[in-house]
Amino acid sequence: MGGSEQRVDRAGRLVRASAAAVYAAMTGREALETWLPPEGMTGRIDSFDPRPGGGYRMVLTYPGSQAGRGKSTGNSDVTETGFVELVPGERVVQRVDFDAEAPAFAGTMTMVWSLTPRREGTLVSVEATGVPEGVDHAVHEEALASSLAHLAAHVEG
After folding, report:
1. What is the distance between the alpha carbons of residues 127 and 56, in angstroms, rounded to a whole number?
2. d(Cα 110, Cα 88) in Å, to the nearest integer?
3. Residue 30 C-beta-side C-alpha neighbours within 13 Å
């Protein structure tokens, strides 16, 4: 990226559910464990405090065939996620830190999840800024889209 441009990774999806149902899935422990891990990964939340200033620690695990891709261990990514802002039915703002030794994964990523009511459901958009340079842009956007597909499946089911 050039000089002062800030990288922004984005994804969006129309979810056929109310903004209230989507928001509940974005702030519920069991729901997050179900939908947030991208395709091929599993997730476990070790601690959870769903309020502004609170947050959660999530362990995302790669299957055996993808061992070695993890940022925290050979087969896992561990994130510390803080809730910066929670606006029911409208927005969730998070600060995410990877538990990783490698400098390429250091830093705090900000994720803004926006919920916009539509006649057919809710448009869910996510923008990530401050993404660590070690996280490939295209791979990250694919992972965000995968998580949104899982969110849709979770709340539409």
Report:
1. 19
2. 19
3. 2
Q: Give the residue among 1, 4, 58, 36 at the shortest CA–CA distance from 124.
A: 36
Q: Tell me the three state secondary structure of residue 50.
A: coil
The whole-model pTM stands at 0.88
**The two structure tokens encoding residue 16:** 């056929």
Count other Cβ atoms within 10 Å, centred on residue 4: 5
pLDDT digits (tens, 9 = 90+) for 52-96: 999 999 988 876 644 445 455 556 678 899 999 999 999 999 999
Q: Where are the beta strands (DSSP E) in the chain?
A: 8-15, 42-49, 55-61, 76-87, 91-98, 108-118, 121-129
By the 8 A CB rule, do 105 and 72 touch?
no
Reported as half-sphere exposure (CB side, CA atoms, 13 A), residue 90 has a value of 4
How far is residue 63's CA from residue 43's CA, in Å, rounded to a whole number? 11
Q: Crossing angle of helices 137-156/19-26, nearest 10°?
A: 120
Surface-to-core class of residue 80, CB atoms within 10 Å of its CB (0-12 exposed, 13-18 middle, 19+ buried): middle
